[in-house]
Design brief:
Blueprint lengths: L7 E4 L7 H5 L3 H8 L5 H8 L6 E8 L2 E10 L4 E8 L8 H15 L4 E7 L3 H9 L3 E5 L3 E7 L8 H4 L5 H8 L3
Parallel strand pairs: 4-5
Antiparallel strand pairs: 1-2, 2-3, 3-4, 5-7, 6-7
C-alpha cells in the first residue's frame, strides 16, 4: 500500500502565481469563504499580501499548492487568520494542517491569540476551527468570530501537534529505517 504524499509547507510571497490554484476552486467554495465571487487575479492579492506583520503560507501536496493560509497582525496583539483549500483537496486534513501551522506562525509573530471571521453558513470552516481549538466569540447573523490562544498547542513542536509527517520521516519509513 502506498503511503499518502506528505504535506510540505512553504511561504507564499507577494507576486506568487496562483493561477493553477484558483483554477481548482469551485465557485461555491469561493462564495462560502468571501460571501461573493472573487476574480482569480484579486484572490492573489488576498492570499499573499505584503507587509511585515503578515505571513502567508501554502500547503503543497504532490507538487501542487493544495491550500493557502494567511495571518495578519492586529494592533491588540492577536493575528487574524484566513484559510482556503482547493476544492478538489478538501476533506484530506489540509485545512487542519494549515490551521495548526498557523499557531506556530502566530507564535513567531509574537501574537498571543488568533481570531478568524467565518460566514455563518460555512459549516465546514466552523467545524475546522472548533476542531483545532478555536471557540466561538459570537458574531452577526451572517458572520461568526472564532478565537484561540496561541499557546493552545503548548510547547510542542508542529510535527508533534498534528498528524502530518515530515518528508524525511516518511522516506525513512518507506526505506525500512
Amino acid at each position: 500500500m502506498n503511503a499518502p504524499c506528505p504535506i510540505v509547507f512553504s511561504p507564499l510571497l507577494p507576486g506568487f502565481d496562483f493561477t493553477a490554484f484558483t483554477a481548482k476552486l469551485a465557485a461555491a467554495d469561493v462564495h462560502a469563504r468571501f460571501g461573493r465571487l472573487v476574480a482569480p487575479d484579486a484572490l492573489s492579492a488576498l492570499l499573499a499580501p505584503a507587509g511585515p506583520d503578515r505571513r502567508a503560507f501554502g500547503a503543497w501536496r504532490d507538487g501542487s499548492l493544495a491550500g493557502a493560509a494567511l495571518l495578519a497582525g492586529l494592533a491588540d496583539g492577536r493575528c487574524e487568520y484566513a484559510v482556503l483549500v482547493r476544492s478538489d483537496m478538501q476533506r484530506r486534513r489540509i485545512g487542519t494542517a494549515l490551521t495548526r501551522r498557523a499557531f506556530d506562525e502566530a507564535r513567531a509573530l509574537g501574537a498571543d491569540g488568533i481570531v478568524a471571521h467565518v460566514r455563518a453558513d460555512n459549516i465546514a470552516a466552523r467545524a475546522l476551527l472548533r476542531s483545532t481549538g478555536f471557540s466561538s466569540a459570537g458574531g452577526l447573523s451572517f458572520e461568526m468570530t472564532f478565537t484561540a490562544r496561541v499557546d493552545r498547542f503548548g510547547p510542542r513542536r508542529l510535527s508533534d501537534a498534528h498528524p502530518v509527517e515530515s518528508a524525511t520521516r516518511l522516506s525513512r519509513r518507506a526505506a525500512g529505517r
